[in-house]
Amino acid sequence: MPVLRSGAPHHPYSPRPHRPARSLATAAGALMAALSLLLGASGTAGAAAPGRATEPSHPEQDWAGSQIAKHEGHAAGIAASPSSLAASVEGVDVSSHNGNVAWSTLWNSGSRFAYVKATESTSYTNPYFAQQYNGSYNAGMIRGAYHFATPNTSSGAAQANYFVDHGGGWSKDGKTLPGALDMEYNPYGSTCYGLSAAGLVNWMKDWFATYKARTGRDAVIYTSTSWWKQCTGNSTAFGSINPLWVPRYGSSVGELPAGWGFHTIWQYTSSGATVGDHNRFNGALDRLQALANG
Fold first, then answer.
1. 62 catalytically annotated
2. Catalytic residue among 184, 206, 218, 277
3. pLDDT digits over 121-163, tens only?
4. Is the pLDDT score of 269 beyond 50?
5. How confident is the model at residue 77 (pLDDT cuts 50, 70, 90)?
6. CA gap 117, 104 in Å, rounded
7. Across residues 22-44, what is the average pLDDT?
8. How far apart are CA 132 and CA 126, in angstroms?
9. 120 labelled catalytic
10. pLDDT above 50 for 47
11. According to the model, what pLDDT value does residue 185 have?
12. Residue in 55, 93, 120, 277 annotated catalytic
């Protein structure tokens, strides 16, 4: 209610006291200024929190290995199906850039497992996830989901929770692999996401601990030896716990990151048949089933 300068209340139906008129334009300007201050204080949609990068702008272009060939190239003599003396199982990995996948074709060509991109940061979910995740399962494959990490946009715990909440969970049904964390070159800037080696290691520890608390499983880690050396100082913190999924596009898996005495999955090409990324599990089918069952 308006108050007179004398402090006496002004009756709503009595003549108003004389005072300088305020134009509608002036009042509107004041209102707009107030709104601008309010918006500035609360932030706008998509703005990064202090100390954080903005959310990914082209997550549909980011998949397991999308940055590997760009930064590391292809080894000489790429093998369409590398030779191996040990028992192994063929598989693939897919994301939204593959669209609807011909799972029966892949099954008939010998693929028996698949990893499907589910999420990136805390803002993106793969729009083809259901067709890819359920389609591989329905074709008879053992399948799992993976998360493309952006450690500079939010905490490890936040991204692990987002992943589990959007397809990255696990169940002991014999057909579901533990989730995987994709750690590779930053598609949006600084190779190591602007973090120190210790900072990246702690971010991953946060992600893995949260994932295990949610699912009961130790997640798989996807990373290249070159990136690992450059960005984590060749950390040995995860080798005894988290199965290694390593990309190297050539005729052998090559040197592994520190801490791992062997790899679990090898992504050996990004130009395979039906879908580009093909993998080989390091063991017989019963060992792959054991990984699924935990």
1. no
2. 184
3. 999 999 999 999 999 999 999 999 999 999 999 999 999 999 9
4. yes
5. very low
6. 19
7. 42
8. 10
9. no
10. no
11. 86
12. 93
φ, ψ (nearest 5 deg) of residue 18:
-70, 130
Among 62, 72, 120, 182, the active-site one is 182
Report which secondary-structure segment, H or E, holds 117: strand 113-120
> In this structure, which amino acid lies at residue 194?
G
Burial class (CB in 10 A: 0-12, 13-18, 19+), 60: middle
Structure tokens at 238: 């995860």
pLDDT at res. 22: 44
pLDDT confidence of residue 58 = 75
Give the number of other CB atoms < 10 A from CB of residue 69: 14
CA angle 206/212/215 to nearest 5° reads 135
Per-residue pLDDT tens for 188-206? Answer: 988 999 999 999 999 999 9
Contacts for 248-255: CB closer than 8 Å, 24+ residues apart: 248/75, 248/224, 249/68, 249/69, 249/74, 249/75, 249/78, 250/74, 250/75, 250/76, 250/77, 250/78, 250/79, 250/82, 251/75, 251/77, 251/78, 251/79, 251/82, 251/83, 252/82, 254/75, 254/225, 255/225
Angle between helices 225-232 and 197-215 (to 10 degrees): 110
Q: Check if 184 is active-site.
A: yes
Contact 116, 136 (CB under 8 A): yes
